[in-house]
Give the backbone structure.
Amino acid sequence: MQKKTNFDFEKGELLLFNKPLTWTSFDLVRKVKYITKAKKVGHAGTLDPLASGLLIICTGKLTKSIDQIQAMEKEYTGTFKLGATTSSYDLEREIDLTFDISSITEEDILNTVKKFIGEIDQFPPQHSAKKVDGKRAYELARIGKVANLEAKRIKIYEFEITGIELPLVHFRVVCSKGTYVRSLAHDFGKELNNGAHLVALVRTKIGKYSLEDAHEIDDFANLLKSNTVTT
């Protein structure tokens, strides 16, 4: 898909970006707001700082479309590591438990995948942005408190293992709104009577929108500098 070169940010634009690793979703929103000078800017579907990939940002009147976009199914590729867990279910926190993986076979891994396809109940990570009594769960976790998080029904449409290099397992997953891939990695380890945590994650699709059509933020800034932008 050919990228646009002329924009009307107040009338409304739907912009695809590749969120840089370690940036928060709001970091990218703030950068887009600064370079576009748009009054209204919002994003559809948060990505954790340690994930990269497709983030959709809407400006102007198209911010009204955000809820609709967030409801679309998502596709991710990534890697989890067997044999260890962290309290955040990813690399944000240090390893807290280790496990022996010598008895785990490729067949065990492939059979476990089947148990996660379809509708499942999933608990958000303690280190998540879920609100509990007005506080973010991660805020409570960072002071040693456990948030009372409820399980949520989500749907895994597709889940495939794309490579096994133990202790690393590479995967692709297509899932519903509200799915925590960190929790999927953690629960996968538990299902194997072991442990696992997410070590890499890239969002590749949101509905019909694809990462391959996304802007890099620096390239987008340079594009705006070289064009007359209607605001």
